[in-house]
Amino acid sequence: MKASRMLVGLSGIMIAALMWLFTAPLALAKGPPDKVTITGPGLKNAIEITNRELLPAFGLAEFEDVRSGTIEVPKVGEGYEITSYFKSGSTYRAFDRARYHPDPAGGRGYVFYIGIVNGWSEYDGKWFHVSEQGEQAMQRILAEHGVQLASVSFAAPAQLPVTGSEKGIARWLIMLGGMASMLGGLLGLGQRQTKRES
Questions:
Q1: Percentage of residues of the chain with pLDDT beyond 70
Q2: What is the CB neighbour count within 10 angstroms for residue 21?
Q3: Long-range CB contact pairs, 43-47, < 8 A, 24+
Q4: So what's the pLDDT on residue 80?
Q5: Cβ partners under 8 Å of residue 68, min gap 6
Q6: Are 54 and 37 in contact (CB under 8 A)?
Q7: What is the pTM for the complete model shown?
Q8: 173: which of 48, 89, 144, 164 lies 20 to 30 Å off by Cα?
């Protein structure tokens, strides 16, 4: 009887761990990031943004205009890589990456959503227009750091960055498969133990 209770308890722990694995990335994505870094043409060093006034523009599905849907691959030049971070204790952990490309005609720019770091989402590897809030934030940040967007070259089309999402998916599947095997083994042990006790 004690063994079957222990197995039920372990099964509960395994189920809770599986639920955490599925919901942790979503929980982290709530609200604006705690920090954003920007690198790209015209910048000698990475820009680090922790200004609470600017950070909401860089939230997941806030910088990218996902409400309007994906767009065809635009003809753009070199872009600015944006990495969003969430604070975990006293350290920052990278959450996702995107590449911002100004519009050569002066309108709202474009964003290639590279993807969630060590994970994946339905937006990975897709192009969107930048939201109005995101465009205003990028224009302000780049201007404050001396970047004249008109001087950015748009002659060569950008190469699509490798998202790494395939690696993230494989890791998740391996972890889930391992946990499912462990859970199956525990349940099998519990059934054998119950039969012996009967």
A1: 60
A2: 13
A3: 43/80, 43/145, 43/147, 47/141, 47/145
A4: 98
A5: 128, 129
A6: no
A7: 0.64
A8: 89
